[in-house]
Amino acid sequence: MPTVHGTDAAEVADAAVAGSWSGLPGSVTLALAYRPEASAASLMFRIKPGPYDTDSLTEFLTDLHDEVGVDKITLIWDNLPSHKSKAMTAWIATQCDWLVVERLPGYAHDINPIEMVWGTIKTVELANLCPDTIDEAHAAAESGLNRIGSSYDLCFAFLAHTGLSP
Questions:
Q1: Poorest-confidence range of 59-63, 70-74, 86-90, 128-132?
Q2: What is d(CA 81, CA 20) in angstroms, rounded to the nearest whole number?
Q3: Residues 131 and 36: beta-carbon distance below 8 Å
Q4: SS (H, E, C) the chain
Q5: Strand 26-34's sheet: what is its strand order?
Q6: What confidence tens digit (pLDDT) does each residue in 12-63 have?
Q7: Nearest Cα to 16, choosing from 75, 83, 101, 104?
Q8: Contact at 8 Å (CB) between 148 and 117?
Q9: In the chain, pLDDT over 90 holds for what percent of residues?
Q10: In Å, how far from its chain's centre is CA 104?
């Protein structure tokens, strides 16, 4: 499994908004991570072939915890079925020493900063893209994720747009 890609991960912690997307023959899961005092922000992600399931999501969350290196993470999550499955709920219950999960209301795309990440990538890197290979689509998506992840201001703009704050 590839590592979690991100920027300034050691400086970011405490709150993360995570999401997953499947649209190609692969899947992306990512987390926007923020310090509560707004001193740092980062986008961390993993792209993998095939869909995410409980095992791959728990591995991503465990790697996220290891990468950011903090004692506690509050995860703000949408209601994707894999995020609230029985297996995921059971796993989360075993991680209560470091993981707190807060759920967004159903159909709350307007208060989910992850939706703004996808929207930005779709209008910049993936706009009018007609790749000859899946690798070209993968590279374009990864380029967009890296662009967003390298911008503290952009990561916070997504959060500010939702009305949420770190």
A1: 70-74
A2: 11
A3: no
A4: CCCCECCCHHHCCEEEEEEEEEEECEEEEEEEEECCCCCCEEEEEEEEECCCCHHHHHHHHHHHHHHHCCCCEEEEECCCHHHCCHHHHHHHHCCCCCEEEEECCCCCHHHCHHHHHHHHHHHCCCCCCCCCCHHHHHHHHHHHHHHHHCCHHHHHHHHHHHCCCC
A5: 41-49, 26-34, 14-24, 73-77, 99-103
A6: 334 455 555 555 567 888 888 888 777 788 888 888 888 888 898 999 999 9
A7: 75
A8: yes
A9: 26
A10: 14
CATH superfamily placement of domain 9-162: Ribonuclease H-like superfamily/Ribonuclease H (3.30.420.10)
* Identity of the amino acid at 106: G
Q: What is the pTM of this model?
A: 0.79
Domain boundaries, the chain: 9-162
DSSP lists the bridge partners of residue 24 as: 26
Report the DSSP beta bridge partners of residue 29: 20, 46
Residues 6+ away with beta carbon under 8 Å from 156: 34, 38, 41, 166
Cβ(24)–Cβ(140) below 8 Å: no
Query: What contacts 24+ positions apart, CB below 8 Å, involve 130-137?
Result: 134/24, 134/25, 134/26, 137/24
Instruction: Kindly report the number of other CB atoms within 10 A of residue 153's CB atom.
Output: 8
Token duo for residue 155: 């990561």
